[in-house]
Amino acid sequence: MSKTDYDGPIHHDYARGRALKAEQYAAWADAFAQHLPRRRPLDGLDLGSGTGRFSPLLADTFGPVVGVEPSAGMRETAERSSAHEDVRYVPGCAEEIPLEDDSVDYCLMFLAWHHVADPERGAAEIARVLRPGGVLLCRAQFSDLMPDLWWLRHFPHGDEVDAAMYRPLSEEIDIFSGSGLVPSPGLVRVEMPPVETKGDVFERLRLRTLSTLVRMPEEDFAAGIAALEVEVAKEPEAIVPPETITLLVMSKPEETSAQS
Ligand SMILES: C[S@@+](CC[C@H](N)C(=O)[O-])C[C@H]1O[C@@H](n2cnc3c(N)ncnc32)[C@H](O)[C@@H]1O
User: Fold this and answer.
1) From atom 10 of ligand 1, which residue's Cα is the shortest distance away?
2) Which domain holds residue 130?
3) Does residue 208 lie in a domain region?
4) Does the residue 221 lie in any domain?
5) How far is the CA of 94 from the centre of ligand 1 (A)?
6) DSSP letters of 120-170?
7) pTM of the model
8) Pocket test for ligand 1, best of 3, 69, 129, 137 (most atoms within 8 A of CB)
9) pLDDT tens-digit profile of 204-243?
10) How does pLDDT run across 173-182, given as a tens digit for each residue?
11) Which of 24, 95, 127, 166 lies 20 to 30 Å from 239, alpha-carbon distance?
12) Does residue 28 fall inside a structural domain?
């Protein structure tokens, strides 16, 4: 299966195709805050920051952020459209994070972990740059916990294409644990407020900025979009069902002084 090429056409439409509403941002900020240390400011890492969808929110809510992103197209879009005085975007990737040891209080990976080609090395790098007590917020899908998405049903083999991109939850926890991170608490579920209409979602999906849609054959994408358009035309203003989203939370243990 081909990788998603974020330097291809996708970066032009990504920000519109993956736009979030204010209520959704607020729900994410609340969810992250529940698992992060209470002091402010916190030094943040947005790993796989893309077009900077989350970096300014993190900076406003918690403190200065470094967005690390391997795709020049995505990063340049972030620099143009998600500029913020407390955010800097730098080239890099999970396998080689351009930051010092013990330099950040948290690392957000939002739908980027499944793109990491060498997850063991990525996990070791995340553990290296987190301070003791630092937190990994990994917003990911897991092949054994795939959501039943109302719109995906219209795409032939959509569920299979989607699930094939992810590993089971226990495997992901094992990978991070191998680098010394511990579940704290592990998997949590985040409720997204139902604020989008079917029409809103259709307009985003047709831009084909989701990896699942990029990876399916052209004819399956075309068939799915056509079927979805017919379905959405029946009630474009209907609010889509609320979504419950998986977030894996791991942390780097505090250092304990050696006992003699
Ligand atoms: C679905 S986008 C998510 C972007 C952003 N986190 C967001 O939620 O809008 C996935 C991002 O992961 C990046 N990515 C790909 N391989 C990566 C790696 N090895 N390490 C870090 N990020 C990577 C891609 O370039 C892309 O920008």
Assistant:
1) 112
2) 10-148+166-195+242-251
3) no
4) no
5) 9
6) HHHHHHHHHHEEEEEEEEEE---TTS----TTGGGSTTHHHHHHTT---HH
7) 0.94
8) 69
9) 999 999 999 999 999 999 999 999 999 999 999 999 988 8
10) 999 999 999 9
11) 166
12) yes
Q: Which of 25, 74, 76, 175 to mutate to test the pocket of ligand 1 (most atoms within 8 A of CB)?
A: 74
Q: Is residue 222 a part of any domain in this protein?
A: no
C-beta of 49 in contact with ligand 1 (< 6 A): yes
Token pair belonging to 200? 């809103």
Q: Which two tokens stand for residue 257?
A: 């002084």
Total domains in the chain come to 1
Angle between helices 218-234 and 198-205 (to 10 degrees): 160
- Evaluate: CB of 71 within 6 angstroms of ligand 1: yes
Contact by Cβ (8 Å): 192, 147: no
* CATH code of the domain in which 111 resides: 3.40.50.150
Tens digit of pLDDT for each residue in 59-115?
A: 999 999 999 999 999 999 999 999 999 999 999 999 999 999 999 999 999 999 999
From the CB of 82, is ligand 1 less than 6 Å away? no
Instruction: Please check the confidence at residue 144 and state whether its pLDDT lies above 50.
Output: yes
Place of tokens 């590993």: 167
